[in-house]
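We treat protein structure as text, and this decision shapes the records that our systems exchange. The tokens are whole numbers drawn from a learned vocabulary of local backbone shapes. Below, we set out a record of this kind in full and without editing:
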Amino acid sequence: MPEYVFTQENLPTRDEFSRLLEEGRKNANPLEDLLMLERKLLLFEQKYNLSSADHFAQYQRGERGDSHDAIRWTGYYRVYLNLKKAINETLDLVSSNEPIAVSA
């Protein structure tokens, strides 16, 4: 999962942004992305001595504030949960005996 940082000084054009998105899609590796997210989450967990699940629950109840770290941690955790769910659903589909529709 490539990360790009844009500022007023380096904003891409619409075409450049589209190219970056397409590049990201072509080079996507969901398992690598999941591992990278786990490493990022672990850093927050160690820094704050709190699990990501507990942080997320507290954040949703308004108990974690809106610091830069709290927002980033929450964002990474949401992406992690969605990606983990997608990988699990794909693995369940592949391991079932159901025929898989493939688009050309």
